[in-house]
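Hi Y.,

Following your request, here is the sequence exactly as I used it, all 347 residues.
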Amino acid sequence: MKDFIIVGAAQAGLAMAYYLQQNNQSFLMVDKESEIGASWLNRWDSLKLFTPTEFNHLPGLDFPAPKGHYPNKYEVAEYFKTYANHFNFPIELNTLIQKIYKKDEIFHLKHKNGVYQAKNVIIATGPFHIPYTPPCAKKIADEICQMHSNYYQNPKQLKAGNALVVGDGDSGFQILDEVSKQNQHTVYFSGETNIKSLPQEILGKTLWWWFTKTGFLSFSKNSFIGKRISNNRQPVIGTNVKEILNRENVIPVGRTTDADGKRIETELKTLEDVKNIVWATGYRPNFEWIEGLELTHEGYPKHHRGVSTMKGLYFIGLPWLHTRGSATLGGIKKDAAYLVKKIQKKQ
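Below is the corresponding structure, written out as tokens. Let me know if you'd prefer a different format.
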């Protein structure tokens, strides 16, 4: 029996562990991966943070890099390992929680080797659960190499020949940038082309410095400005969208609408020469493994700043948990500190 079990040992779980430890709470962290930082190491090779070092500090131990440096995925993973070891958090790896249910005021967390019990549970698994590809992907011929961005590492995974990159978010444009630079063949782009992009630095200051000074990261999701920001399309950060789309070997084709074998239908043309498809089409949340949890129509838990409708069950690391900054590495500590204070008051 533990007072707390934290499910997930990335930035959200680590921040919660820090504050629970500072408050002398008995807790255990569990994570499905075999090592701390695996959620970052599993992403594509060239991935870097949008935020410079000074905005990436978890509570109690700063990110070990010079100011203005944009860490890569390996540096982030190493920071997480160092952080967990520094505070000597109790962590069980290779532990996938398959089901959570509450009985007689106690939470039961089922995994392949048994069941944990806890008075309180903090879900820190983040928002990226199930890689999503549109239904038409199943109609595409087997000889065409298809992969979701979740499994994309580098262009060497692709076959020789033309490629199609689907998705107009940060991941989509970063992968389009990399594939079109290293692939001399045609790279079709499927998505919106009128996407706003912002540079990482403006007038000698990082974009996140400006965000902090203007309060952009601090508006509550329930405030007037917060609602406007959260409902509007977010710009692509640190990637020159216009330059990429103007490359000779990049051809925008609009949305992908259907497929049949080797023929891919898009809004602007029918593609019959594609050898590779990278689906940068996002993720869907999955919280069905938590019995009795009340969800929104988007599939996320109903909560107020991480406090769910189920007594003793809390969430951290969700998009817009409270502000735009909730989704950033450095912003997670504010949510974690608030949540631990709320937990303390309830005990």
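The helical segments are 11-22, 38-41, 73-87, 170-182, 207-214, 224-231, 241-245, 332-346.

Thanks again,
Q.
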